[in-house]
Known about the structure:
Elements: E1 6-9, H1 12-19, H2 23-39, E2 49-53, E3 56-63, E4 66-75, E5 79-88, H3 95-109
Parallel strand pairs: 1-5
Antiparallel strand pairs: 2-3, 3-4, 4-5
Amino acid sequence: xxxxxxxxxxxxxxxxxxxxxxxxxxxxxxxxxxxxxxxxxxxxxxxxxxxxxxxxxxxxxxxxxxxxxxxxxxxxxxxxxxxxxxxxxxxxxxxxxxxxxxxxxxxxxxx
Length: 111
């Protein structure tokens, strides 16, 4: 049996970002989290998760009003730490979102 993955939010900022999403997108986020916890991150792929760059990955969340992303990194102890949640307005994930996520991800490795 494989060890379960734990999905957590980096801090209150990320919780607030998640709470700001429409209800259907929050439900989709919870569903992806359940899949990661149930099957293991190593068994996840598109359309649910996709590699962004470096240590950053994204949960791909769709809703009736558009799409959003939850950017995460993995940490010791089979932890998935969500560092940024935002509604996506463009085709490609904006550079500023990646830079912000990279900056926040530094805090994960310091814990």
